Amino acid sequence: MKRSKFKFFLLTIILFNIFVHFGIEKSNSNQPETNKFNYSYIETYPWIPKCNLETKLMPVYDSKRNLSNDYSSPSSDLTFEIRIIKAVIIYFPIDQYDSYADEFLWLFRSWIEIIYLEPSKWRTDLVIFIYENTDALKSIDLFRKLNCSFKNLRKSKLDKPMCTLVSFTPLKFRNLIDPELKIDQRLYNFLLYHSDIFGKKAAKILSDFLVKTIQSYPNADSVLIALDGYDHLKKSGYDFVIRSDIDVFLTPLFAKWSPKHCNDFYVGKGAYSAHFNMNRLKRAGYHINFLYGNHANLGSTWYSTTDQSRLVAYLSLFSMAYLANEEFSPPERNGDLNILLWPHWHYWVLSLYGQNLAMNHLIETKQMNIQSSDLLDYPAHENSDINKIIHIHAYHSNYFSFVLAFLTFF
Question: What's the pTM value of the predicted model, to 2 decimals?
Answer without folding.
Answer: 0.89
